[in-house]
Amino acid sequence: NWLALLPAYESALLVVLFEEYPGAISREKLSELSGKSITSSAFSSAISTLKKNGLVVQEGTDLKASDDLFV
Asked: Residue 2: what pLDDT?
């Protein structure tokens, strides 16, 4: 279970992306739904961590949970 392994900040973002799956959402919408500040360096860092681990993919400028998490 990735949520148990991730830091709380990353988990909060991933939960939102799980709820929006299979749709992709903007960083602004992710910020709004997660309650995390888009201007925070932690926000960008958390997205980078999720992408590096293959948990989140970018579609244009939007983000979505990786399809691999749902197979």
From this structure: 86
Q: Whole-angstrom Cα distance, residue 1 to residue 18?
A: 13
- Nearest to 17, CA basis, from 36, 39, 5, 41: 36
Separation between Cα atoms, residue 20 and residue 24, nearest integer Å: 7
* pLDDT surpasses 80 at 1: no
Instruction: State pLDDT tens for residues 32-70.
Output: 999 999 999 999 999 999 999 999 999 999 999 999 999
Q: What is the 3-state secondary structure (H, E, C) of the chain?
A: CHHHHCCHHHHHHHHHHHHHCCCCECHHHHHHHHCCCCCCHHHHHHHHHHHHCCCEEEECCEEEECHHHHC
